Amino acid sequence: MCGGALAIDYNTVRIILMKKNILLLSFVLMGSVVFNEAAGTDDVTHNVVINAESIERALRGVGDGAGDAVIRASEGAAKAGSNLGKMLTNISEAFPTMGKDTLEAMRPIGGYLVKGLGVYVALMLTYKLGEVLGRKYIARYLFEPKLIDKKVSRWSLGRQKSINIRDRMVISDELAKDLNYIIKITQNIKKNGGFFEHVLLYGAPGTGKTLFAELLAESSGMNYALISAANVSQFLQKGTAVEELNNLFEWAAKSKNGTIIFFDEAEIFLANRGTLANEAQNALGAFLARTGTPSNKIMIICTTNRPEVIDPAVRSRLGLSVEFKAPDFKARVAQLKMHIKNVFDVQKGATVNATHLKNEKTVAEIARKLEGVSGRTIQKCVNRFRQMALALDKLVVDDQIIAEVIGQILKERA
């Protein structure tokens, strides 16, 4: 090679790739092309291919075809650079009478053209490299993981907030005590830099498990990501659940405020391994690997309607567990009053008279009949009172409507 030619050594490429800076790599490669062209070396293509071979060595094991992509792009850049050099030579030969000073004056123009070409090809190379390598890194570090079903909430920019669970949820005294305890210790752990306690919430659907997880994130100032069973299921079917789980945990660990990962209906992949299909077993293994050591970045909350089916290894990682029972009589009365107020005090469309429904005795009688139902079912019941009054064109909730709606609700539960 001619003197002044530039070659990128293997260690330089390796260090750049360790920092996952694909854009920097492409500019370093193109810098070699520009330098060699400006230095007048006749062996630009050879130098670039050597550089590409170094990159291929550094990329080995990262992805199939990565080295080939670099070689193709760099050879194309070298060819373009050589053609530009020949064009400048042809210009000088076409004007033999042109003075040396004039040719020297033209040299910077050629330099700008070469540099412009270098930037252009560097950008194109970045795009090609992104197809091979960047896609994984971009998805993992810049965007929300695909597993997240609900958009991430960033509560108060990391600031903690005082919350009394009784002010936000209509629940029994016993459950309120357990949930306030979890809120308090989570706030203290985050404030003092301790390791988060993972939690299992179990009980019938519609009893407030998801709402509590959101309130916990709000009170602690942590980020919150909800992972639904339906979303996990689709990646299990595609065979990519393990990869997506790893992306999720790596993304969550990057939050400076900490992240609550909420797995709804966790038995979809965290049940006893003997009952799971192969892909679900692999996902279970990935979850166990990610939660095997304490974390001050990630808090896991799992919910299930069937706690007995959760794998024992998973249960051992969920240090706290809380049962969400159906609301007791006192809680049912409070929930009925709250939903009646929300539904009938601000009505859109025709106004339905709910005077009889708001009577204390009526509310107590409805609460007794709805024993064992969830808070979500109580809300549905109140909504249905109004809908039936509208459908029957009575515009008043009387005993007939109340009895018919309660009968429907209880029949649906049977």
Topology:
Elements: H1 10-18, H2 22-39, H3 44-59, H4 66-94, H5 100-141, E1 150-154, H6 165-168, H7 173-192, E2 199-203, H8 209-220, E3 223-227, H9 229-238, H10 241-253, E4 259-263, H11 267-270, H12 278-290, E5 298-304, H13 312-317, E6 320-324, H14 329-344, H15 360-369, H16 375-391, H17 399-413
Query: What gap, in angstroms, lies between the N and C termini?
Result: 85 Å
Tell me the fraction of residues in β-strands, as a range. 5-15%
Radius of gyration: 33 Å
Name the shape in a single word. Answer: elongated
The major beta sheet can be summarized as: 6 strands, mixed
Instruction: List low-pLDDT spans.
Output: 1-10, 37-53, 58-67
Q: What's the β-strand tally?
A: 6
Helix content estimate: 55-70%
Strand order of the largest sheet: 1-3-4-5-2-6
Main traits of this protein?
disordered N terminus, elongated, alpha/beta, 414 residues
